[in-house]
Amino acid sequence: MQRLSQPAADSCQEAIRRAVLRHPTLAAAGQQLPIAGAGVAQARAGLLPQLNLAGRAQRQEDGSPTATTDTRTAGVNASQSLVDVPAWLGLRSSLARARAARYTFIEAYQSFVHQVLGAYLQVLESRDAAALSRANFDLAAAHQRASEQRQQAGELTRTDVDQAQARAAAAEAEWLTAASASEAAALILTELTGDPPADELPVPVLPVLTAPPPELPSTPAVQAALAARQAAGAQAAAVQAQSLPVVALNGSVTRTWAGPAGDPAVRNDERLASLNLSLPIFRGGDLRAQRQQAGAARELAQAELERQRLLAARDVSTQWLQLTAARQSLELYQAAVVAARAAAEGVDSEFAAGTATTLQVLDAQDRLFANQLALVRGRYAVLRLQAQLLLATGQLTLEALDDHR
Prior knowledge:
This protein has helices at 12-22, 24-30, 32-45, 85-152, 158-193, 220-240, 286-353, 358-392, 398-403; strands at 50-60, 69-83, 246-260, 266-278. The chain is α+β, with helices and mostly antiparallel strands.
């Protein structure tokens, strides 16, 4: 039952929009973006000036009340890195990880669009199949009634009527099964969008690729793997750079109040600026272990990048071959439907003239129905393969569907 406060999704684009806004799949994938952004902010903060406010209160007693001294100190400390190669490389690594997270989200988004589009096409296909099955049942039922009337008139035998009844019962079972499949498909789309689909849905118009991409597709998965490889490379370089000197400028402004307890304190101001250089000499083997770990992570990221490139090239080639075959099959299905319809009409005319048997009529109707059903399946198979090819090339977006309505 549809909710009155929310109209049903009446197009593929509307179904995708509703699913994107409400479904937790994308919400979970989107949580990686602020996490990656926070990592960039942390890495960048290490290169910015650092300010600290310091204070201390101290009382020193030397055994007698008159020898008690109160000291209070307040100051501001500042530091700024001048030469810190590991920190700069760490920032590059964080930026690359942020890009990887963004492309990973794009990949999840396009995969989810593909999922919703597939559910939408399944609703359309199941509805068309159910309508075709209902028409086939109506035709079989009409033939059964005609056979019964002609049997009463002595023109047909009881065997002819039994054959017509059996074929009508089978057609009814096919129709009920198709109607159930249509309801199940609508429930799946409803779960994704939050609302049931409208009674009338248009067939989406997908961007048509007339030739396979001439170059390796730069899919979101490949871009994410490339960014991850860059992040791992920058991290490995940052570990290597930890043996380089780090130069920092430090400064502080301090005010101290000190004097005997109960007496006015003497104020003393101090300003200090220094240029510090730090060069690691020995770290107990920690740096060597970090280098090995970072190098292994870099090699792993490189292997994953090559794997994603191979997968992208294979997917595009496979989907293109399947789409080409599906388009050719669709043309054959169309020709088969035309021939089967002509044959069924011819057998019907012969049956009316008494030169064709009931079994011949039923067989001709079955062949026509089977070819019509194959044509319906073939049309949506082409649309699915078009969507899969768009996904394989990284072009399956809501904007692309909107541009081709």
